[in-house]
Fold:
Amino acid sequence: DTAVSQTPKYLVTQMGNDKSIKCEQNLGHDTMYWYKQDSKKFLKIMFSYNNKELIINETVPNRFSPKSPDKAHLNLHINSLELGDSAVYFCASINFGSGVPGELFFGEGSRLTVL
Amino acid sequence: AQSVTQLGSHVSVSEGALVLLRCNYSSSVPPYLFWYVQYPNQGLQLLLKYTTGATLVKGINGFEAEFKKSETSFHLTKPSAHMSDAAEYFCAVSSPRNTGNQFYFGTGTSLTVIP
Structure:
């Protein structure tokens, strides 16, 4: 069983479209993240949810809207896609419950290409 | 505020030579420090981490890193490079839960191993 799974793995779409990426973790973790990795491999944190509550919301266009229906799921919806949104989006999860972070587990990434 | 600086976006070493990847951090609270590795078209995997205790930490695949508070450094080393070590390496800093659950990644260092 994959610990952190993302779908779809690849997404090619036209400018202006709306798309969603889904993430699920089966590790029982309390915190989930979305990261964006650009073409230079730079990893930028976008959002973090702890027990379904949004705790980190970095400077991200409001076209990006995260949703966490439960602790195990964190989805990312993007409206009005732009060329600059092309990137690899990584979901990650960790258990912060004890106060000392363990391992941040990453999904395999969702490569978004906007044409 | 926390941040991580990785010196050298590209490092090349010969097979069998010492690997040294540099990481310096900035943190207003005692940091938790991590090294992650990313192989092509994959997510990130944990190599090793420092939270408390022994400042020399050993990780997977023969890697180790030493936390030096006086130098605010957490450099990654491996005595003898192997071809399979070629990948992107990321240093990351985090903090205790009550200061935000944030993970900040460096810009990454691409390691090339020359046969």
